[in-house]
Write a structure and sequence with these properties.
By secondary structure, this protein is an alpha+beta fold. It has helices spanning about 20-25, 55-65; strands at about 5-10, 10-15, 35, 40-45. Strands 1-2 form a two-stranded antiparallel sheet.
Length: about 100
Amino acid sequence: MKVKVAKWGNSVAVRLPKAAAEALHAVPGTELELTVEGGRAHLSAPSRVRRIDLEDLVAEARRLGPQNEPKFEDWGILPSEWPDEDWSDIAPKDDEP
């Protein structure tokens, strides 16, 4: 399939034919991955990252066993200082939503 390069501001652009856009699941705003190698350009849909939930993480930790458990670090209670500046002139009042 042939496409034509057009000027777009200081860049150039390629318009994707409908069949190519549908194959990439590309709609306006979709980000695609472009790689250029040896004078060839390859445009692809970004790889989907698998969602991992807490249950998956716990199952994997149990599979690895206690010998692979990370060392415990006691961070203690970190100090948190209240700022000395007076913000009362811009702070929300109790009766404000």
